[in-house]
Structure formats: C-alpha cells, structure tokens
Write a structure and sequence with these properties.
By secondary structure, the chain is of the alpha/beta class. Bound molecules: ligand UAG, adenosine-5'-triphosphate, 2,6-diaminopimelic acid (API) and magnesium ion. Its EC number is 6.3.2.13.
Length: about 500
C-alpha cells in the first residue's frame, strides 16, 4: 500500500499535522465515496465547499485529510496536510497515486469551443487503424483499447482521469486522446498530467455563465497551452481570430493549420457535398467521408497531430479518408419515400449552429427548404439563447424552438429567452413547441419531399433531463420512428 508522503511528491504543502507515513488506500474528492484508509481532499467547489465534509469523511474511514484551511478541532490519529490549492493538489496526488500514467503513454489534449469530441475521436480511430492500442476520454464515451466506458463529463475529475489512464497503460495503450474542457482547466482537473501534445480547434461564445467574460474564457483555454512542456507540440487553427494568441506563451513546438493562409498543415476544399469532402491536404488530394467546412478544420488538426507524432503522411490520409466522425455529429438519414434529409447534430452553441446550418446550405442542390428544431440547455449560459434563436431563424426557412435538457429551469422560460429580441423577419419563421418529441413531429409534418430537417443540440445524448430526472430520449431514434409513422 502507498504511504501519504509518496503521494504528496511535488504538492505545494503549507503544513503537516500528524503521521505523514500513514497508509493510503485510495484518494477521494467526494466524502460520499470514502472507505477505510481513504485520503480525502477537500476542494472548494461551485455549489459546496469540500471543507464542510471533512468530519463526514473521517466518520466514513478517512485517515488522511488534504485541505487549504485546517479545521478548528483536529481529530486524533488523523493526518492533516494543509496545501496551497486543494484542486491542484488533487491532480498532482492522483498522478502520483496511479504511478504517473500520463508519462507512460503519449497523451494528447484537445481544447476549443467546438470540435473537441470530433478531433479526439478521429485521432482515436486513426491511431487504432494505424495499429496502436489507444485510449479516449470524450463527451460521448471513454475507450480503453476498444472497451467502452460510460462518460459522465467531457473531461472527468483528476482522480478519474488518472485511474482511466492507468487502466489504459495496463491495457497496453501507447496513446491517449482526451478532450480538455475549459471547466477542467479552470478547476485544475488536468493538473499533474504530462501532455505530449495539445490541439486548439476554435473559440466562440459558450459557458459565459461560468467564465463570466469572453476574455476570461480565452485566458482559461490559453492556460492549457501555457502549461505544455518544451518537448510537446502545440497545434492551432490559424484561421481562428484567437489561434495565434493561444500559442503565444507556450513552451511547446508550435504548428498551425489553415484553409486560408500558408501554414504547416494547409488544406483547400475542392468539393463539399453530402457524400463528403474532397480536399487537398499539403497538396495531396483526398476524399473524406466527413461533411462540411468545419470538419475540414477538424481533419487538418488530426492530420497535423499525426504528423507531429511521426506517422507517415500518406498512410495517415489513407486511413483518415475512410473514417466516420463521432456519434451524433452530422449524422443523417434520407427518408425512403419523400427523400427528406434528417440530420442529427450536437450543435449547442451559436457558432456550431451557424456552422452546421451554413454547411447545410452549401449542400443544398435546389430550392429544398431547411427546417430546424433547436433548444437551449437549462442551468447553462443564458446569453446564448437569443443568439441561437436568431441564428436558427436567419439560416432556416422554418425554426421550431423546443426543449434541450431544461434541467432545473422552467422549459417555457427558456423558450421565452430564445424568442427575446428576434427580428420581425425571424418572428415570422419560428414556432415554439415545448415537447421535443412533438417538435420533431411538427418538423416532419411541415416538410415537403426533399426538404432538410436539422435536429440540433443533443447529438449522441440518450436522455432529456427535466427537473433533475433523466428521461430516455434519442433524437435519431425519434426521427426514424416519425419517418416511419408518417410514412415519409
Ligand atoms: C460547474 C462544474 O463544473 N461543477 C463540477 C464541480 O462541481 P462543484 O464545484 O459544483 O462541486 P460541489 O458540489 O460544489 O462540491 C465541492 C466539493 O465538495 C465535495 N462534496 C460535495 C458534497 C458532499 O456531500 N461531499 C463532498 O465531498 C465534492 O465532491 C467536491 O469535490 O466539480 C465536480 C467534480 O469534479 C464536477 O462533477 C462538477 O461537474 C458538474 C456535474 C457539471 O455539470 N459540470 C459541467 C458544467 C462540466 O464540467 N462540463 C464540462 C464540459 C463543458 C463543455 O461543453 O465544454 C465537462 O468537462 O464536462
Ligand atoms: N471545428 C469545428 N468548428 C465549428 N463547429 C464545429 C467544429 N466541429 C464540430 N462542430 C460543430 O459543433 C458540434 C459539436 O462538435 P463536437 O462534439 O466535436 O465539439 P465539442 O467541442 O466536443 O463539444 P462539447 O464542448 O460539448 O464537448 C458538432 O455537432 C458540429 O455542429
Ligand atoms: N457540454 C455541454 C453540452 C451541452 C449539450 C446540450 N444538449 C445541453 O444540455 O445544454 C454542457 O454541459 O454545457
Ligand atoms: Mg465534446
């Protein structure tokens, strides 16, 4: 069994009270998961302060406590370690506890507002196709060499990350690809990890409920690159306004990808249709199965990373050309009778919604109409609601506003936020149908043969969260059922 002293390696300690040689069975940041000889790390959170649960943790068997503030009364036989930052300590300690798994494989992190899941998943699929055992930490799922593990977060907490990485190392993985959310950077969930490379996709409006200002959101994303080692590579999107700033202070070796300017990884779209993209990538012409300009960027990022990792460029493009994207990202179905194109996409930010709708317009052959079903999540950034409502109307012939995980909020109020400030032209185009199933049905009832229906916001999600309860709901399943029921 490990002892506390070993696990504290490189943690910034302020004081120690008790026996630092105490054994540690496991690490926990949640008092509800404590067992015998657990080490409890008290973290100040958004909802609660872990320090309030120190007593509870000791009652449940914790023998060692990591905290920023010592309790007034110290219990006998317990070792208390006061640290500068508990969240950061949790990352460093988790890495020590699990034997530095991020150093035993090559860990690549992907950050940005949109495209993280797509890029990380493509990298996982690509390196698997190239013959490596790989790991993946993503919004849709975690993977350990082909074995699927349910994902609860885009980026899990530090202890879960290191436990998963340990399992990957034990399963013989030589690569791990992970999404790095801005919440994760800010909450130090990635502290103590050793990244071999970092990728930036893009930055636009999201999570301003959490980060408060756009500048702060940028600063947090940039902190990921600031933390990379000189031995790592950092790849950024030159066509994004903040693409260069992201890498301004990184010690890592910098690379850029672009569709518009000269860059190490340069792409040009030749054809963009429902059957995929035809592009040149560093002067080699390739056909990809992924659709839309935004995926051209995702593919360039993946190509760049694979090149930096020493893979053969031709082989990389050959493998990439046959890959499909991540579940729920621009997945489409054509109805058998009326040839209505139904698209399920995870666009849940203004930028993603705009991108996916612009892509749909580029794919249109004639005067097919575009009908969009969209909602905005409850207990999330409210400022994106009117922007998404307006974008849906601007870029569709008809928009149906509906619910997308209202969580603790009143769904009608969310719809009101989406409707607020719509232009007169937009007002003529939208209707609100609070029940998502009814909204999808309405979209199909309104569609003429050949029309395009976009169902945005939930992608791979298999639930609708209402008042804290997750009800089974799957946009793709609904779409298929309605097509059949309506005989389309
Ligand atoms: C807003 C946010 O990010 N919250 C995350 C945060 O929770 P928190 O700060 O609210 O924690 P808290 O409830 O205040 O508790 C503070 C501490 O006390 C502990 N505690 C609490 C209660 C108790 O009885 N005993 C106890 O020990 C908690 O375990 C925690 O360590 O830390 C928790 C542990 O790591 C996360 O599970 C939790 O994610 C919540 C569930 C969440 O919904 N997060 C979303 C917003 C999120 O993280 N999303 C990003 C993706 C965003 C994107 O699209 O880019 C993600 O990476 O998934
Ligand atoms: N490079 C990109 N630029 C802009 N939009 C994109 C890009 N890639 C994907 N999208 C759009 O954003 C949606 C979400 O994509 P993806 O799941 O890959 O992003 P993400 O960053 O992982 O999102 P999340 O933060 O929720 O995990 C897609 O369904 C698509 O509409
Ligand atoms: N990672 C994002 C996903 C949003 C997906 C959307 N369907 C919603 O529930 O708002 C979040 O947690 O904010
Ligand atoms: Mg994701």
């Amino acid at each position: 069994m490990l002892i506390l002293q070993d696990i504290l390696y490189q943690v910034k300690i302020r004081s120690v009270n008790g026996n630092i040689q105490a054994p540690v069975n496991d690490l926990q940041i949640d008092s509800r998961k404590i067992g015998k000889s657990s080490c409890f790390i008290a973290i100040r959170g958004v909802q609660a302060d872990g320090h309030a649960f120190i007593g509870k943790a000791i009652e449940s068997g914790a023998a060692t406590i990591i905290c920023e503030e010592l309790p007034d009364v110290l219990a006998d036989g317990i070792c208390y370690v006061q640290v500068e930052n508990s969240a950061e300590a949790a990352g460093t300690m988790a890495a020590n506890f699990y034997g530095q798994p991020s150093m035993k494989l090559k860990l690549i992190g992907v950050t940005g507002t949109n495209g993280k899941t797509t890029v990380a998943t493509l990298l996982y699929k690509l390196f698997t196709a190239l013959g490596y055992d790989c790991g993946l930490l993503s919004t849709v799922q975690n993977m350990i060499a082909g074995r699927q593990i349910e994902a609860t977060h885009t980026t899990p907490d530090a202890i879960s990350i290191n436990a998963l990485l340990r399992n990957m190392v034990d399963a013989g993985c030589s690569y791990a690809f992970m999404e790095v959310s801005s919440h994760a950077v800010h909450q130090h969930r990635i502290a103590g990890l050793h990244f071999a490379g970092g990728i930036f996709t893009n930055i636009s409006h999201d999570h301003l409920d959490y980060h408060k200002t756009f500048d702060e959101y940028i600063r947090v994303k940039k902190a990921f690159f600031d933390g990379l080692a000189a031995s790592a590579f950092a790849i950024s999107n030159l066509d994004d306004k903040r693409g260069s700033v992201m890498l301004q202070n990184t010690a890592a070796v910098k690379y850029f990808y672009s569709l518009r300017s000269l860059a190490e990884f340069k792409g040009k779209i030749l054809e963009n249709g429902l059957t995929g993209l035809v592009m040149t990538v560093n002067d080699q012409e390739v056909h990809f199965r992924l659709i839309g300009e935004f995926n051209a960027y995702n593919l360039l990022a993946v190509y760049g990373a694979a090149t930096c990792l020493g893979e053969d460029r031709h082989e990389v493009l050959r493998c990439l050309s046959v890959l499909s994207g991540a579940e729920g990202r621009f997945e489409y179905l054509v109805s058998p009778v009326d040839k209505i194109i139904g698209i399920v996409d995870y666009a849940h930010t203004p930028d993603a919604l705009e991108n996916v709708l612009k892509t749909i317009h580029q794919l249109r052959k004639g005067d097919e109409r575009v009908i969009t079903v969209v909602g905005c999540g409850g207990d999330r950034d409210k400022t994106k609601r009117p922007v998404m409502g307006q974008a849906a109307c601007d870029l569709s012939d008809k928009a149906i506003f509906t619910s997308d995980n209202p969580r603790s909020e009143d769904p009608q109020e969310i719809l009101k936020d989406m409707e607020a400030g719509l232009t007169t032209a937009a007002r003529r185009k939208y209707i609100s149908v609070v029940d998502r199933r009814e909204a999808i049905k309405t979209a199909f009832s309104l569609a003429n043969p050949g029309d395009i229906i976009l169902i945005a916001g939930k992608g791979h999600e298999k639930y609708q969260e209402i008042k804290g309860v997750k009800h089974h709901f799957d946009d793709k399943e609904e779409m298929e059922r309605i097509m059949e029921e309506q005989g389309r």
